[in-house]
Amino acid sequence: MFEKVVVAVDGSPQSSKTLPVAVDLARRYGSAVTVVHCREFERYEGSDVDLGPPIPATKLVEDTVEMFRAAGVEATGELRKVRPGHTHEEIVQVAKKLSADLIVMGTRGMTELKSLLLGGVASKVVHHATCPVLLVR
Description:
The protein is about 40% helix and about 30% strand. The chain contains five helices and six strands, in the order βαββαβαβααβ. Strands 1, 2, 3, 4, 5 and 6 form a six-stranded mixed beta sheet that branches. The protein starts with a strand and ends with a strand. The relative contact order is 0.23.
């Protein structure tokens, strides 16, 4: 049923709550998981300024992929560099590219305050995704 699952992570405590759910689901269905992390960057005086959490993006993806593999789940990772406000587009694009059967993500992440005012990444993914989206609180 869920052969290919995309798990979106952002390094927030809420994002880490999705991982046990995603591992359980992937093990039950024998799913292949792609962990995706979209790191927001802003261009400032000719350089890219990382707007993400303090953990390095590659480490976040590698550690998450390793956690899935340690649980016996086939997993790969994708790191995407995006402009602020475009994270949802990249998550949806990864899912489309992979012909994913499901996207798993948290309801709130690094931009919790902003999401209350503008509509969060999760809400935008739900509206634009072409596959089911499982939101974990």
